[in-house]
Amino acid sequence: MAIVSAGAIGLGITAVVQSQQAALSEVKAIARSAEALFSSDQQFEALLEAIRGQDRYSSSR
Hints:
By secondary structure, this protein is an all-alpha fold. Helix content is about 90%, strand content about 0%.
């Protein structure tokens, strides 16, 4: 029974770590998108994208 519990805890930790990694990857992708928009003279859209990235980062913590 203890082995099953340890396995379940291990899987739970793995799921949390993977979820955090996915959120970080999403935030990085949003940041790259904002940078690309800024570079292509779409400053307002870049600002909106950067704010969206900040919101996502804040909600993932």
